[in-house]
């Protein structure tokens, strides 16, 4: 079972759970979802009517908590930590994992120094342990640790929830990509046609040259035959000399 299927199952579980609860029971579900070690998408939970009804209530902080895990990072949490709910160790770990995914969206080479600053990690050993054990083994990112260059090279990373307004940009980006791909395909097809035409020209040229070679061969063979079949003719003087040679 791949991570996408697992995500879908966990999302469905929490959406159904949140849809039937209110008050403290609902806020407890939000805490549970943001602490779950295998859940990394929250926009579907955010769209549940019961959750949206928390806006403007005494429990609205839990709606903000869910938004933080859908779109935010560890550094953003630190900026508002004094006025926010305290995070459990499991929540802190998850928010740092999500921060790596956010960084990987814009840069596939993540310097160690930047990562240590963004994640509040004290040293390289701790950072590499986190990237290996809590990111790569968790299946949310694949990459290579480059100790010589002191960076993490991202190969594949799970995507985060789209923020409001991002969908239009995403659609435009995909449309641009499709247009570029179609133009590239047309260019490739034109090059294939050109290569085919050049191949046909080469074949015609080769046949012409082969025909000329054969023509020359036939001409040479004909001349050789004519030379070999030519009759021997002697003048009278020549016959006389030959006869005297025979007598001698």
Radius of gyration: 41 Å
Order of helices and strands: HHHHHHHEHHEEHH
Low-confidence stretches: none
The assigned structural class equals: mainly alpha
Q: Helicity level, as a percent range?
A: 55-70%
First-residue to last-residue Cα separation? 114 Å
Backbone shape: elongated
Structural overview:
By secondary structure, this protein is mainly alpha-helical. Helix content is about 70%, strand content about 5%. It contains eleven helices and three strands. The chain has helices spanning about 5-20, 25-35, 45, 50, 60-70, 75-80, 90-105, 110-120, 125-135, 165-230, 235-245, and strands spanning about 110, 140-145, 150-155. A three-stranded antiparallel sheet has the order 1-3-2. A hairpin with a 4-residue loop joins strand 2 and strand 3 (about 150-155). The mean pLDDT is about 85.
Q: Which features characterize this protein?
A:
248 residues, 69% helix, 3-stranded antiparallel beta sheet, 11 helices, mainly alpha, 3 strands, 6% strand
Secondary structure elements and pairings:
Elements: H1 3-19, H2 24-35, H3 43-46, H4 49-52, H5 60-71, H6 74-80, H7 89-106, E1 109-111, H8 112-119, H9 124-136, E2 141-146, E3 151-157, H10 166-228, H11 236-247
Antiparallel strand pairs: 1-3, 2-3
Helix pairs in contact: 2-5
Quick structural gist:
The chain is 69% helix and 6% strand. The protein is mostly helical.
